[in-house]
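P.,

For your records, the input lines for the assembly:
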Amino acid sequence: MGVGLHLPSRVVTNQDLEKTLDTSDEWIRDRTGIRERRWLEPGLTTSDMCLAAAQEALEDSGVRAAEIGAVIVATSATYDQPLPSMALMVRDALGATNAIPLDLSQSACAGGVYGMFLGSHLLQNDLMRNVLVIGADCFSRVTDPQDRTTRIFFGDAAGAVVMGRSAPARGLMSWDMNAALSHSVSISAGGATTPTTPKTAEEGMQYLRMDGRTVWREATKWIPESIRLALKPLGALPHEVDHYIVHQANLRILQHVMDDLQVPHSRAEITVDRYGNTGAASIFTALHQATRGERIAAGDLLVISGIGAGFTWGTLCLIAE
Ligand code: UT7
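Structure tokens returned:
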């Protein structure tokens, strides 16, 4: 019913990163397609981005904050603090006083898809009229400034959608959700296994670590498979999908997915070149671009698909109203 997006104003280019990391603009563009990303200014935090994105989504939908039945906030690991609930902080700041706050904090870059899946299922209950789903990440705060294998990929952003009831044969038509445990993308300190101590901080265990090649292998396997499985109950084939809103991890992964599905690259929205991988916000950056560009018409078939650390992944097939 409405889409919102917040991007920090600070732009960090590949040339900026060359100054502090052993990397190059050419390597980053060639391997990832990323030219620049946004990093949140000091003094601001993830919930500030959530609030701005949510306000735009509410305005776009015409739904008032008090009419929201649930506020779902998905983030990889960049909530403001472990407790209290960030969904509750956002609910409070919005004045969404009738909403249940729900936090989805470990479905990582699949968080936007998981949040929409949860939101659409809450709407199966007659008492739930509108759900606000927010995906937000502030990776600049959890990537190691010295680690070129992670630092270059990520950007900060928040995206939001207001979901409501659709007409028959419109809205969410089918889906595929699945997961497979792997520690290849992880933050090892800060939980019950390894609480944060001066020693863990000294060793940089609060930072995200990523085995890039495993991510590549898993993402290029599971995203196309999930899209095919999700389309099956609709009897639709990949080339019949009008818009692909796919997690913006990396331009090469996106292109690989489209080639695997034998669909022209032009059907996929691209934002990763300007914003990097924005985690749980990423599908909303693409959805926002498609809706603001007025590219989606009533009756169009949309595929929204994402994969994140865990690994968790999922695909939603929707028909636009
Ligand atoms: O957005 C977050 C989700 N994660 C991803 O999307 C990652 C998915 N994985 C990939 O896209 C690819 O596997 C990478 C881009 C991570 C690596 O691509 P590749 O074609 O497998 O790279 P490569 O094997 O040709 O080069 C890897 C080399 C390594 O050096 P050695 O061990 O060969 O000496 C890395 O240390 O590239 C080095 N490297 C870098 N060099 C310059 C890693 N990061 C960088 C960097 N700048 N930022």
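Two observations worth noting. Residues 171-319 form a domain with the Peroxisomal Thiolase; Chain A, domain 1 fold (CATH 3.40.47.10). The mean pLDDT is 97.

Regards
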